[in-house]
Amino acid sequence: MQNSLQDLENRYIIPTYGRNYTNFVSAKNATIKDDKEKDYIDFTSGIGVVSVGHANDIVSKAICDQASSIMHISNLYVIEPQVKCAERIVKQSGFDMQCFFGNSGAEANEGAIKIARKYGEVEGESKRYKIITLDKSFHGRTITALKATGQEAMHNYFGPFPDGFAYAEDIDSVEKMIDDHTVAVMIELVQGEGGVQPLDKQKVQALAKMLKAKDILLIVDEVQTGVYRTGEFLASNVYEIEPDIITLAKGLGGGVPIGVVMTSKKDVLKAGDHGSTFGGNYLSTAAANAVMDILSEAKDSGELDRTFIKFETRLEDLYKKYDKIFTSSVGFGLMRGLRVRDAQTLSDIISKAHENGILVLKAGRNTLRFLPPLTISDTEISEGFKRLDEALSSL
Ligand code: PLP
Question: Which fold, 59-300?
């Protein structure tokens, strides 16, 4: 079976991924089974997507109920679960904003860039279009989101790109890159793909203040950090800043594709300026509403914070035990990383862990990344770290 799947894939799928050929067939919360009945503890949640665990009963029911009544009409008509989802997102954020719904993180960032570009076109004396992003950032794979991504190696082959992006080495160098054309600065508060690298809170607050004074928009890409991943609904809440534009995706739909751009600049985009066929349809927003129900209740009851502490304690124990392999522990909430002494060791850890029934991720060149479901149980945390410990001790 496995071979024939691999053969079919080789024949029919464009080979853009370095794939593992384990055939997963079922899952519950943070435990996944393959076609040989072997189980795996999932410390990845599908790269930060399955925030409420696999096959969550409440989300499955919401999806089934919605699918059997209305899945999709179109954005030409008001969509009740979309409106309710926007209301919840805005209320949870604590910001006075409005939402636009798309289908992915890259698309949400495209929306953010369009809002910023139009703001730069219609507000102020000179026309502004330049957006500054950070080195090692990741904002998505569409041509413009890729150009916004501060990793030049990823730009090979795909030019010419839209003009107007510049990359600051770090947050300290943003101010000196600002010129008369600059309309926005876009950052991830914790760089995910770049290696689970949190920005310094005071520096972010100072940046936000400086940008406000210059009427330059602050865009925060919360595609990975958002929806309780870093402890509060948004990492912007943790950093105590009020961005002008925020993007969300990954964890919001619990596995159903969804992306959101939200902004306090409510009157910039007008009818006809932006749109999406699928974005915010009945199905994806019904799923997102169920996800938001589960996670806001877990946050309010203290359950989410307890899970964070349990995971962190076990992670720190592992970090200390293998101090010859790991060089530092990074990240917060359930967006965590252990820096590994070299890239080869990291790749050995990931394959050994897989063999041992524990799924973990790589970020940047040398970071072992953990993005477990936010609903992971104590038993799954214990079992996962036990398996990872065994994998590490066998290296
Ligand atoms: N922005 C950030 C911070 C991300 O981590 C990602 C995906 O990893 C994206 C944007 C792109 O999201 P998508 O793959 O849904 O387009």
Answer: Aspartate Aminotransferase; domain 2 (3.40.640)
Superfamily of domain 2-56+301-393: Aspartate Aminotransferase, domain 1 (3.90.1150.10)
Residue 285 neighbours by CB distance under 10 Å:
29
Calpha distance 235→241 (Å, rounded): 9
| Residue 255: pLDDT band with limits 50, 70, 90 | very high
What six digits make up the tokens of 28?
A: 């519950």
Distance from the alpha carbon of residue 321 to the mean position of ligand 1, in angstroms: 33
Minimum CA distance residue for ligand 1 atom 12:
105
pLDDT band at 233 (very low <50, low <70, confident <90, very high): very high
> Which residue, 275, 277, 288, is CA-closest to 92?
288
- Distance from residue 4's CA to the centre of ligand 1 (Å): 31
The per-residue pLDDT for range 215-225, each reduced to its tens digit, is: 999 999 999 99
pTM score, two decimals?
A: 0.98
Q: Domain map of the chain by residue range?
A: 2-56+301-393, 59-300
CA-nearest of 253, 302, 201, 340 to 46 is 253
